[in-house]
């Protein structure tokens, strides 16, 4: 992905990096989704989501908004550069719903960064069931933002 070597990635397996990323998402929206990061490396993320009744729409399939959300979240994590002072925000998302996600207990999302620039990151995401059925495919664009330094808390 990036031209410069990032020391955060050296001598770590994708599974070790996934564990680091899982720690990073604790207490965030990803944690609320009960996202399990299975594999992570710079430019790639594979995640798993357990399906609950509240993820369903009235006709009994998984709600498209949930599919969009897990694709956006997985794509964003694939786009993160560990150890960087930048963060990401979604500026565009596009989702194609290919099959109704009915009778699913688990979904797997796999995101691959296709272009990582100084300011913009473009990522493709595929959502599948454990049986391999592809339910949705999306493309997401993120903007890199530099987070302001936190001010020390006055006592």
The N- to C-terminal Cα distance equals 42 Å
CATH architecture label: Roll
Please report which band the strand proportion falls in: under 5%, 5-15%, 15-25%, 25-35%, 35-45% or over 45%: 35-45%
Instruction: Report the CATH superfamily.
Output: Hotdog Thioesterase
Can you list the strand order of the major beta sheet? 1-2-4-5-6-3
Sketch the topology as an H/E string, one letter per element.
HHEEHEEEE
Number of domains: 1
Identify the CATH class. Answer: Alpha Beta
Number of helical regions: 3
What's the layout of helices and strands?
Blueprint: H1 14-24, H2 29-32, E1 36-41, E2 44-50, H3 64-79, E3 86-97, E4 106-116, E5 120-129, E6 134-146
Antiparallel strand pairs: 1-2, 2-4, 3-6, 4-5, 5-6
Give an account of the 3D structure:
This protein has 155 residues and is α+β, with helices and mostly antiparallel strands. Helices cover 20% and strands 38% of the residues. It has one domain: Thiol Ester Dehydrase, Chain A (Roll), CATH 3.10.129.10. It has 3 helices and 6 strands. The protein has a 6-stranded antiparallel sheet with strand order 1-2-4-5-6-3. A hairpin with a 4-residue loop joins strand 5 (120-129) and strand 6. The longest helix has 16 residues, at 64-79. The chain is globular and about 50 Å long. It starts with 13 loop residues before the first helix and ends in a 9-residue tail after the last strand. The mean pLDDT is 85.
């Amino acid at each position: 992905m990036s031209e410069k070597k990032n020391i955060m990635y050296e001598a770590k397996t994708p599974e070790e990096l996934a564990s680091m990323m899982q720690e990073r998402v604790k207490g965030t929206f990803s944690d609320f989704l009960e996202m399990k990061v299975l594999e992570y490396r710079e430019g790639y993320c594979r995640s798993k989501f357990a399906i609950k009744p509240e993820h369903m729409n009235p006709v009994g399939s998984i709600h498209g908004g949930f599919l969009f959300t897990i694709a956006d979240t997985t794509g964003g994590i694939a786009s993160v550069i560990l150890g960087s002072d930048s963060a990401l925000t979604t500026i565009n998302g596009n989702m194609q719903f290919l099959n109704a996600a009915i009778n699913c207990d688990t979904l797997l999302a796999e995101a691959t960064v296709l272009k990582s620039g100084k300011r913009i990151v473009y990522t493709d995401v595929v959502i599948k069931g454990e049986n391999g059925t592809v339910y949705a495919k999306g493309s997401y664009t993120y903007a890199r933002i530099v987070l302001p330094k936190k001010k020390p808390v006055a006592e």
